[in-house]
Amino acid sequence: MNHPPPGSIDDTVGLLASADYVAERGLATAVFLALRMGRPLFLEGEAGVGKTEIAKVLAQTLGRRLVRLQCYEGLDIASAVYEWNYTRQMIEIRLAEAEGVKSREGLSQDIFSERFLIRRPLLQALEGDLGAAPVLLIDELDRTDEPFEAYLLEVLSDFQVTIPEIGTIKAQQPPIVVITSNRTREIHDAVKRRCLYHWVDYPSAERELDIVRRKVPGAPERLSREVVAFVQRLRAMDLFKLPGVAETIDWSKALVSLDQVALDPHLVDDTLGALLKYQDDIARVKGSEAARILSEVKAEVG
Ligand SMILES: Nc1ncnc2c1ncn2[C@@H]1O[C@H](COP(=O)(O)OP(=O)(O)OP(=O)(O)O)[C@@H](O)[C@H]1O
Ligand SMILES: [Mg+2]
Question: Among 16, 53, 228, 248, which residue has the most ligand 1 atoms within 8 Å of its CB, making it the best to mutate?
Fold first, then answer.
């Protein structure tokens, strides 16, 4: 079902929350404005802070199809936009030969028609669905190379692509575009200029607790509070890779699977792998440091 876009920032917060996405006001404002102004939303932030999820939740709550373009090094137009179905074209040529079709002109027109076109995500997003443009998620744009970025810029300016053999295909209604980056490199200014930008930060303790309550409903309240307080303290440390919201959720789920109702030092040591993914970080936290943090957490939550 096609849901109308939110009418205010508060509406936007509510819409996202209806799919269990807890957004702070800055993010909700960026989402609201992107929808209202028809501009792409550019989200940067650390890993696991909910960038990709925004696009999924928007598609879900607005009743749009989600079209996802996962970026990687070497991504090209054949994988991102369209490609000719060579195998089917070959078969068509053989059949035409067998039937004794003589007109080369007619045949080449035929095999370069839409029937033989493989639509990749960008083209799918432009062609859209009747009456409801999809949500186009361009995920982890920093992983592609600059020529592709330049091409993307063209697509985002006019919401159209040109296929030499067919002509120009233009979106009747532009898709809702969400671009994410983990900032392994800077994205070109020209791309950013077309978008509304928002840096997705780690959530406050209050918001993170709300997220855990929604995403791990089986977790005892006391456990969730301790988990969140612990993670928030870890994020103040100088670690190689800080835990994201995804890790907080994972850790909570792991502890629930172990039937735990509260943290204790051994439990923390044994389950740190759900939270920290680098041996150096685990070695730093495990043992006395974890025990120290935990005693602060117990004092705070208790
Ligand atoms: N504000 C939030 N409200 C609800 N769930 C959240 C929120 N932020 C993150 N999550 C949850 O955390 C997990 C990770 O989110 P997501 O995959 O969107 O992160 P990401 O920023 O795209 O990370 P990466 O850079 O690693 O791709 C998801 O399961 C998502 O549901
Ligand atoms: Mg992501």
Answer: 53
